[in-house]
């Protein structure tokens, strides 16, 4: 839900007319002043009718699968929608290792379907928006080092690896920029990567200590755990094999901190400069 709000918060001020499509049985309220339609999301005809006259279809569902999203994509094509934005919003799907991770298999299936369905001459195109870790949520739950609620910190693979983190508001800004005439064609049928800040767990823990006065301690004194991501994945594999779906969250860590998954290649992939997106400095982070 926070991601949906961030997208709406960027689209409306940019002058876009937004219609929210919800499941028929959804009880979630919609923001005032925004059109909403409740539909059978498996009904091709209903979706096609709803999409007619729309320029863009954006999906922000948390765990998409091709089984559920194929009909949405096909309906958007039938309605002559110009751009489809699938629900990726993830660290990196462009390495063989990352595509094998269980928590993104649905996203990979959808990306492969989009890649195989559209050519340079197709009326409908796609753009995936790939951000780093959701910055605000990561800080809240201690994913990027410091956990302010618990007043402790955790490192992964040493804590010094630099990765990209993204503000929710910047995800909305990037979506708006992708749809602008200046960038619409160059982003067609491409994955657009961006980040709001380049951070390490050690840097954020240090800055959080300066701002809050919390003494997080160190690895040497035993107050900060330094976890090995490979060990974490072995444990997650066991849990997943036993049907424990809570293990899925663990697979974000290799996407960020393990070699070969592309999480540390974010600057090379970044569209920040082309899209005119500001990155955060240490004062901004504080």
UniProtKB/TrEMBL annotation:
SUPFAM superfamilies according to UniProt: NAD(P)-binding Rossmann-fold domains
Top-level division of the source organism's lineage: Eukaryota
Keywords assigned by UniProt, alphabetized: NADP, Oxidoreductase
Keyword NADP listed: yes
Annotated InterPro entries: NAD(P)-bd_dom_sf, NmrA-like, NmrA/Isoflavone_reductase-like
Residue stretches making up the NmrA-like domain: 17-125
Protein's name in the database: NmrA-like domain-containing protein
